[in-house]
Amino acid sequence: MAEKRPFLVYRDVLLPRSETFIPRQYRAFKSLSPIWVGAKPGDGRDLIAGEQLLLNGRIERALFKQFGRVPYDLQKLAARDPALIHANFGRGGTLALPLARALDLPLVVTFHGGDATKHKHYQTTPLIQPVFQRRLEALKREAALFICVSDFIRQTLIDRGFPTEKLVVNRYGIDRPSPSEQKRERRYILFVGRLVEKKGLGYLIEAMATLRRSYLEIELVIVGDGPLRTALTADANSVGARFVGWQSQAEVASWMDGALAVVVPSVTAESGDAEGLPNTVLEAMARGCPVVGSDHAGIGEAVIDGETGFLCAERDSAGLAAALARLIENPDLCRRLGEAGRARIGVEFDADHQSGRLEALLQSVIR
C-alpha cells in the first residue's frame, strides 16, 4: 500500500470538544494524511488522531496571527512535502494564508456557518480591522477552493462576493448506528445545542406552552448550555422543561433513542449568525428519530418535510406545536418518519462517502 502524502489541517483552536465533525471529515482518506496545525490548544485534542503542531507562546501566536510571520517550526514543514493546507472556518483561512504563501501550497477553506453569515465579519471597520477583514480580498483571490457545508452557505458566500467558480458544496457525513433496541418512551421532546440566539430555543419553549394545554405529560429535555440559559430558565420552568447540561456523545445518543422528536428551531440571529447544517439534525436522523426543524439555512437540505420530519418557518412556535402534536397523536407516523430519515442518511450523508468526496476535492487542487 502506497504511503499517504501529508497535508496540513489548520484550526486556530486545536480542537474544541464540540467540533467532532472536523476530524470526522478525514476518516476515510486513502491518499492523504493530516498534520494538524493550530495556534492554541482546545479541550478536545484527544479527538485528533495524528501529529499535532502548536505555536509556542503569546508572542509567536501574535506575530503569526496579526502580522503573518511564519515561525521556524512551521517553515520546517516544507521538508515534509505537504500537498496542501485545509483550513477550517473562514477566519482560519485568513490565518493560514501566510503559511500557504510561505510554503507555496494550495489553500482550501471550509466555511461551516456563522463564518459566512455574521454581518460583523463583512463590515468595514474604520480604525483597527480584524485579521479576517484585512485579508478577506486576498483570501478570495489566492485560495484554490472554498468548501461549503450546505447550498445555503454557498449562496451566502456568492452574495458576499466570493468567486462562484471556487465554491463547492460538501455536506457533513455521519455514521448510522445499528437500530436501537431501546423502546422509545415518546414522553419527551429533545433539544440539543448551545443556548444562543440562533438556536431558537425560546420558540420551542413557546410551542411547549401550547402543547401542554392538551398534552400535560409531554416534557421538554434540553441538552446543552450557553449564555442565554438564565434568560430562558423562567419560561422553561413554566412548561416543565428540564435542563440536563452538556452530555457526552453516548448520553446524547441515548436521549435521542428515547425521544418523541428532536427539535431544531434555529433562526437567523440579529448579528446575522446562522447555521450551516446542524449536526444535531443528522445525528437524530441517523438514529431514526424524527426531526422537527425550522426551514433555516441547510436544515431543509437534510429534512424532507412530511417524509423524514417536519419543517416550519423560522420563529413559528405555533407551527412547531402543530407538528409535534401530529407526532404525539400518531406513533406510526413517528416510526415512518424516523425510518425514512435513517435511510436518507445512508444515501446522502454517509460519513465515509462524504470523507472520500472531500479527499477528492482536496486532491483536485494539488499542483
Task: Indicate the CATH class of the largest domain.
Answer: Alpha Beta
User: Main sheet, how many strands, which sense, barrel?
Assistant: 7 strands, parallel
Helix content: 40-55%
Put simply, the count of helices is: 16
Q: What is the CATH third-level topology name of the largest domain?
A: Rossmann fold
Overall average residue pLDDT: 94
Q: Architecture of the largest domain, CATH level 2? A: 3-Layer(aba) Sandwich
Looking at this structure, what is the CATH superfamily of the largest domain?
Glycogen Phosphorylase B
Question: What portion of the residues fall into strands of 2 or more residues?
Answer: 15-25%
- The radius of gyration computed from the alpha-carbon positions, rounded to a whole number of angstroms, is 21 Å
Distance between the termini: 23 Å
The number of E-state strands comes to 15
Low-confidence stretches: none
Overall structural domain count: 2
Question: What would you call the structural class?
Answer: alpha/beta
> How does the overall form come out from the CA principal axes?
globular
Sheet with most strands: strand arrangement: 5-3-1-6-7-8-9
Task: Sum this structure up briefly.
With 367 residues, this protein is of the alpha/beta class.
Features:
globular; 15 strands; Rossmann fold; 6-stranded parallel β-sheet; 2 domains; alpha/beta
